[in-house]
Amino acid sequence: MIHYFLKRVISLLPVWIGITIFAFFLGLVSPGDPVYLSLTRDGITEPSEAMVNAKRAELGLDLPYHIQYVNWINRVIRGDFGKSIYDNEEIKAEMLRRMPVTLKLAFSAFVITVVAGLGIGAVMAATRDTILDRFLRQLCTLMVSIPGFCMAIILIAIFSECFHLLPTSGMEGVKSFIMPSLVLSMGTIGTSARLSRSNFIGEISKQYVLVASAKGMSKSFIGTWHIFKNAMIPIITFFGLYFAGILGGSAVIESIFALPGMGSYVIDAIYNRDYFIIQAFVLLTGTIYVLSNLLIDMLYFLINPRMKQGDSL
Amino acid sequence: MQGLTKMKKKQSYLWIILAIVMVLGVAGCSNNDVNATTDKPDEAAAQAALNENNESDRTADEEEDDEQVSDVADAEIVLAGTRNIAPGENDAYYCSSILMVWEPLIASDESGAPIPKLAASYSANEDYTIWTFQLKEGVSFHDGEPFNADAVIANFDRMKLGEKSSNFYTMNIDTTYPGLEKVEKLSDYEIQLVFASPLPTLDYAMTNFGSAMYSPKNFDAEGNFNGLPMGTGPFKLIENVLDSYTVIARNDDYYGDKAQIAQIRIKVIPDPDTRYSALKSGEVMGVLDLGAIQPVMAMSLVETGDFDISYTPSTITHYIIVNGNKFPFNDVRMRQAVSLLIDRELILDSFYAGLGYPTVNVLNQMTPFYEAFDIPHDVEKAKSLAKEVLGDERVSVALVLRSGELNRYPNKEEAELLQAQLKEIGVDAEITILDNAAWSAAVKEGEYDLSLKIKGLSSAEPVSLFSSMMKTDNSLNKSWSFGYSNTEVDKLIEDVSGELDMAKREAMYNRLQTIAVEELPVIPYFNDVTLVAFNKKIEGYEAVNYGVTLDKVHWAGQ
Amino acid sequence: MKMKRMEAMPFMILGAIVLITILAPLLAPFDPEMIDMQNRLSAPTAAHILGTDSLGRDTFSRVLYGGRQSILLAFAATLISMGIGTAVGFVAGYYGGKADLLITGISNVFLGIPGVSIMVAFAGVLGPGMNSLLIAVTVNSWVGFSRIVRGEVMQLKHANFIEGMKSVGASDGWIFIRHVLPNLSDSLIILFATKVGSVVLSVASLSYLGLGLQPPAPDWAIMISDARPYFREHPLLMAAPGAAIITFVWSVHAIGDYMRDKLDVNKGANDAL
Q1: Nearest-CA residue of chain C relative to A194?
Q2: What pTM was computed for the model?
Q3: How far apart are CA B491 and CA C103, in angstroms?
Q4: pLDDT above 90 as % of chain A
Q5: Which of chain C's residues have a Cβ under 8 Å away from the Cβ of A290?
Q6: Three-state DSSP class for residue B290
Q7: Which residues in A lie closer than 8 A to residue B46 (C-beta atoms)?
Q8: Residue in A37, A88, A258 nearest the CB of B269
Q9: Where is there biased composition of kind Acidic residues (chain B) (predicted)?
Q10: Intra-chain end-to-end CA distance of chain B, in Å
Q11: Sign of the Cα pseudo-torsion (C196, C197, C202, C205, in order)
Q12: Which of A9-23, B175-189, C83-97 is least confident?
């Protein structure tokens, strides 16, 4: 187990380095000058060339790219993400402030997805080929097909404007998170329900279940353990990747519902070409991605130790 | 076979459900509003429930406040802003002047002219090198520190620490007080500013953000704020949660007319549609700050009968900016053609609900130096001017839009209309929406022909505007690629700063405006208004040229 | 096995949408970009059966045209992604070893970076428009294909018939085209359908942010975005393009689902439907 773990860590290390390089250059290649934007952010001041150059030098942005990269990595390893170019706020503090918001959002969307996805999937598998199954399948497909922003606008119009049931925005308790997490989980509920359905069905019809039942094992035992265990593998993969992906995918939702999370932070940073924030963000999501891959592998290993390594990626 | 037909039926149910959801979501609501106006108790009940929710969500340490404000008249009013109205310690001003937390030495009246505020009166010597200010007595900061000459000097000392950036107005002592040699205390309530060269319009530069005053104990060593801002205004800032809300409370020790409401909470809701929904649902009572609400949406609220709007001329002018460094708009006739071609009234009526003032003047109306000019609209003349330049050829141009502007203004629709009209004069425009950074890069590199852009008049003393937009190779003229150059203009701009005679100064500004109208370094099309919308449950919510009368706001009927 | 009528429905709907979209110039009663300020925000009339938008353009015509760019973009980008992904995935799965390590590593780098960041960065670098969207989407979605293909190829590689082909000296390319590709086709078609749907949705959200397709091109997502200030009084402005985009994505996804079920049928893992 430990041997396997170490092996995985070593194989993921280059991926992590690749992500840092990509993160670094992603910011740099986009046109636009964050320094100029920062100096003109009141919409009134117009800086001279010299002022722009001075600030650029101060930030080390005039150095060759590879030196900038090394400097950046040096700082990052020591846990220093630097300050925003645009408004000079500490990036780490800002991220620590915003992270809980996105985590709350992602987590509630995740819970909705898991509960609804597995639930609907199980119901569909159990009632396979009945009207209910077909109806739910169409519903799942439909859920995957609605653009998130469209759904958000409609939900706000219905639940806030018309019925005054839910707040439009902000972070006032659980109620505020209902609509955004619903919108965010919409698409994944559909996908995960279908995935769960076919996996459950696939496992039910597999040989070993038949054998097990022939051996006289109780039906409920077959149901709750064998089927579940094996059906879970692809489902875990899906959810694991989903959780990493949600961090970047919540930008539009966050700005519509006025949630000060990571998504809206990075979108603003992209608009302002705030390299340091973009880099820190991509590094963070990349690291989470790498870690969740590791976690998935470990889970695989625990559920089914015969699994060949490397198959999950 | 029976099963099949069943399936088919169910499929059509699905579509019906989808259709119903869509229609309910969008149309159902407007029906509901018609009911709401006739069915007030219901709405009030919903509102009460909402208020209750808000209250139960509060934390324990706020309970104390609640006791004080338990009176209905003093219940907190919740408003929504478009951005962080109080960006915090690292902002040069901590919060916008809209909040009325801090006050300047010199404020501005409705026309933008300077009026005394914390300075009770002021005067300058004959050659405008020494300015003397008598300070208001009996004023104290929110932390109890007295406002006096020492406090003013502390604020100047802070400014001298170096430029401070801000979301509102960069604080730079060298731009606001150029050539300041010393700040002298004459008595406890009198100070003197001594300059190296004449500054005849210093008072204009000092208005509002130019002379904000804070408690001398409010700064850290670097000149940033060491906590909440301690101003002298009618409101104290008592709680600030970045990107969520800011709470201000009445300053009961205010020297002037005290605020009418005990407490106001201003939420940050950046998305314009969400802000509209929050207002409509009764979650917030009003909206404020730049681009608080788009005019057409405000009008649709007014139609429901539960909401009202207030507006007043603002310092913002909408321009069609042009790349004067390259064909075709390097030719003044093409710029004139565009100005003649566009129907300013139509644009305003269609996309701004008629709220705004058509203009051809580069200078915004919020200054005593503003001149009104005739606004010609003559499509035939536009066509013939364009024909002189283009002949029978058609020309393709790039019309770029800045994505940051699209949340506030209907620029996209304006651009589409402009695009259609430009076809008539032989110009084929291709619209591209660029994000803010790419837009800045494109206009700077001259990789555009036309764009729509707003610009606010930062001071009622317009020299900085003329210098920025019209002086050869200067500032915006350069970074927005106007490529405008006129030796007479350059000379006027240079001379006007040192001109001590007000009448002559005015004449020079007139001349600059006239030249701008003829040569159109940019094509202004209208002067904007500050527009706010509010629920009729509150009163006294009036737009002022920058902000809203927060100190007059109160619950209706109280 | 004959396709049942109900199952044919998504195919018919998709076919109808594609046909309408292609024939839009013949079917549309108005030029979708024709501005008529006298007639703005009109309710449905005999001439404008879905009313007009804030510039007086005919909503019905715009909806007919509205799929042209995004559907073309989605199909083109997904095809290219599929091509690249399949080739790369085959190399990784078939040859294994260092090539596999390298490709898997690179794939993971792409997977580890949020799609939005990649798309916005590319839209930024190349300037918004069809081409940059095409590249952005491709960069973002080839990995999905290469992962699947790699996995399947790794399983196939050890199948007897492939081993047999190798032993008689068949070239790798030939094995790929004649024996691997046909075995992959089912999974690829399913993934293709899913991707086309999701590409349409992600282009829509970019367009919603203003960085996707550019005005005045009639496009469903842009129409939804433009309708925001008006949709409460004029619900059709949002409902019409909204229904169109949802119907399109739904039909594509439904086809993907159908293929998936059919695949299960072939594998005998499911009862005949």
Answers
A1: C257
A2: 0.85
A3: 65
A4: 1
A5: 108, 112
A6: coil
A7: 164
A8: A258
A9: 60-69
A10: 71
A11: positive
A12: A9-23
